[in-house]
Specification:
Blueprint (H helix, E strand, L loop, with lengths): L2 E5 L3 H12 L3 E5 L3 H20 L5 H9 L1 E4 L2 H5 L4 E4 L5 H14 L5 E4 L6 H5 L8 E6 L8 E6 L5 H13 L3 E6 L6 H17 L5 H12 L5 H8 L1 H15 L8 H8 L12 E4 L4 E4 L6
Parallel strand pairs: 1-2, 1-4, 2-3, 4-5, 5-6, 7-8
Antiparallel strand pairs: 6-7, 9-10
Length: 296
């Protein structure tokens, strides 16, 4: 696992690259635009500097990690020497299937192909490759350098050997891996997303306001962030997508997304990324306030 390729340089991709590079792996970061990988390197540099300031690593470790990272806009060349590829592209099934078809042709035959997907079937992804036994899910949590959990998802044909290798690799990265089987939402989102959706339903029905719902879960259940604020942070469009994956994959009406969630996404209110969701976000001050239409 010396050579690791990370496909996608967004929030999750640059975080995954950061962690692998910090632990001595040679990392190739791939994205379709040169500006995207340059921005990712800036983010990684800033986040490593923050770790130095906090005393978590030293300057030598920071410099070594940055030296371990190279970038390219060519998927084929970026994967040519990979022992492991971690895909962290957009959470869209067509995009992921196309990427894995290309990875199967570009990566060496021994390479493990992993996806950071939060909800899409690993079995379905593996089926478009000629190596389904070597396809697995590595679902890192955001922010990747901080969060310990890696949800390791076994597809229907993922081998015991590959699963064991990825579990140990995750431990070597200082993470705490948890093995789960490939069913809609896996474990993290099968439990988290219905909770978020129920909080949105309670708001829609007028049971309580935004701040009140979040306060109950923070003060009463010791959650570090309320479900509505968390939904904004994840992205309301992502929450809606995962609820629809659960609804379609399990076929139980209890997984139907709240009409309020559907309307908000249709209106472009996607949370932090759009500047408004259940809260309004001020990019300049980093402050937030409850969106006017949801005040109790």
């Amino acid at each position: 696992m010396k050579n690791v390729t990370v496909v996608g340089s967004g929030t999750m991709g640059n975080g995954i690259a950061h962690v692998f590079a910090l632990h001595g792996h040679r990392v190739t970061l791939v994205d379709i635009q040169d500006t995207a990988v340059k921005k990712a390197l800036e983010t990684i540099t800033k986040n490593l500097a923050r770790q130095v300031d906090k005393g978590l690593i030293n300057a030598t470790q920071k410099d070594a990690a940055l030296a371990n990272i190279s970038t390219t806009t060519s998927l084929q060349s970026g994967c040519s020497k990979a022992d492991l590829v971690v895909e962290a592209a957009s959470e869209q099934i067509d995009i992921k299937l196309n990427i894995f078809k290309e990875l199967d042709m570009a990566a060496p035959t021994h390479a493990i192909l992993a996806s950071n997907t939060s909800s899409i079937s690993i079995t379905r992804i593996a089926a478009v490759t000629g190596r389904p036994e070597k396809v697995i899910g590595m679902h890192f949590m955001n922010p990747v350098p901080v969060m310990k959990l890696v949800e390791v998802i076994r597809g229907y044909q993922t081998s015991d050997e590959i699963t064991s290798t990825v579990m140990q690799l995750s431990r070597d990265l200082g993470k705490s891996p948890v093995e789960v089987n490939d069913y809609p939402g896996f474990i993290s989102n099968r439990i988290l997303m219905p909770m978020i959706n129920e909080a949105i339903c309670a708001l829609h029905e007028g049971v309580a306001g935004v701040a009140e719902i979040d306060d109950v879960m923070k003060l009463g259940m010791a959650h570090p962030m309320g479900p509505l604020e968390l939904a904004d942070f994840i992205g309301l469009d992502v929450c809606l997508f995962i609820m629809r994956v659960l609804q379609e994959g399990i076929g139980n009406p209890k997984y139907a997304p709240s009409p309020l969630l559907v309307n908000m996404v249709a209106a472009g209110h996607k949370g932090v990324k759009s500047g408004i969701g259940f809260y309004v976000y001020n990019k300049a001050t980093k402050e937030k306030d409850v969106a006017t239409q949801f005040r109790a």
